[in-house]
Model the fold of this input.
Amino acid sequence: MGAGIDAAREFAPEHAAVLDNFKDQLLIVLIKRLADKNGRLDLPCAEIDDTARDLLAFSVDHDARIFHFELRKKS
Done:
């Protein structure tokens, strides 16, 4: 994951920076939704390590200003 952003760094560094910032913001939003009342979310390392077969796809509805995310399995 992140290979596309790494590839963009040489030819479009500003785009790579935007995507890096977006990933940081997305992680904050997701943790805010999942965290307990103290703002804490605990994830086992094994669960994080077990994502090699997963893909994250997303699209944007510009009119509604909504991001749509979908988890998929690699084929």
Summary: The longest strand covers residues 54-61.
